[in-house]
Amino acid sequence: MFSGKLSLIGTAVVVALSAPCMNVQAGDTEFKFGGYVKTDVMFSDYSNGAPGSGYISRQFYVPGTIYGVEGNGEQVVDFQARESRFNFKTSTDIDGHKLSGFIELDFMTHADGNERVSNSYSPRIRHAIVNFDNWTVGQTWSTFQNPGALPENLDFVGAAEGTPFVRQSLVRYTNGGFQFAVETPETTVTPFGGGARITSGSGMVPDFVARYNFKTQGGAKFTIAGLARQLNIEKGGLDTQEMGYGVSATGVIPVGSDDIKLSATVGDGMGRYMALNYANAGVLNSDGDIETISSYGGFASYRHWWNDKWRSSFTVSGFKADNDVALTGGSVNEESYSGYVNLLYSPVKPMTVGVEYMYAENTKQNGDKGELNRVIFSVKYVL
Prior knowledge:
Layout: H1 2-18, E1 23-26, E2 29-46, E3 75-80, E4 85-94, E5 97-106, E6 124-132, E7 135-141, E8 167-175, E9 178-183, E10 187-190, E11 198-200, E12 207-215, E13 221-235, E14 238-255, E15 258-268, E16 282-284, E17 290-292, E18 294-305, E19 310-322, H2 325-328, E20 333-345, E21 351-364, E22 369-382
Parallel strand pairs: 10-16
Antiparallel strand pairs: 1-2, 2-3, 2-4, 2-22, 4-5, 5-6, 6-7, 7-8, 8-9, 9-12, 10-11, 12-13, 13-14, 14-15, 15-18, 16-17, 18-19, 19-20, 20-21, 21-22
């Protein structure tokens, strides 16, 4: 009987993997395979020289990475299918308990391939979680982030500087609209006087997040999340700790068939939680102690449906860090802004083709600037 169950489950897995978007039932367990295929063509103009091919800002917009390389050409074109992803999920009812597992991989952020011959890139884990009733354990979106409020942009993140954007390992408990989590700690600080970022995973205190999700009678969805964390550096003769915090609010507001998406985040010592770590959580003073860096950011996006097949999103996003120049020096990141407008067409529900224009400007504390103009053409097929 045991071997029979294994055979049944094995058959279900094979069928699920060979039949995209098909749900397969094996006893009390449901198997589902999903993901999408996406190809981008990006025409980019960097104000002060393009980074080399394979560099992360050639894959998608990351604030702080568009300053370029002096002497390089400013205009480049990139073709990629690296955002394509696949996932596998199981869901089981066991004696009244709900047990599920989910794993997802894509091919972004790596520089281990090349554009000369094969364009081969390693897969990376995006999500790997187990859910048991109200508990979630594994790697997934930080509880401080609301991915459901992200705008529909062709850029991989879209509004990158205006939103918390973190995936990491965590333990989370959900009860109705409330969520409470302990998550992976990681500290990033600027050395006294400026210089290369110091990163430390030392310390025994996890990051703590609490969040509340709620709906209005009109169908609007809102979240409020709070973050508390200990910044900790114990390396190279340094031994210093400081507390950091953050508060984030997001909303998705229907306007007829359209919608408005909003996000606002403010805090002291948030660091890597905001704007893809555009600014560090703190800076070391002359005594070797951490002093936190305050920052705030947000975005607003309006999506309009022209008809049931055509739609557009209009997005603006921004971030600012309040650096103490006497401690950080002038070479640290201060402000980042970006704007997006796109036109998307879905001739059939699983497929979307589109074009998007984006502009981004990053400014360092000393006034140095980098600008990026980019036009993206994409084709996406949801499995």
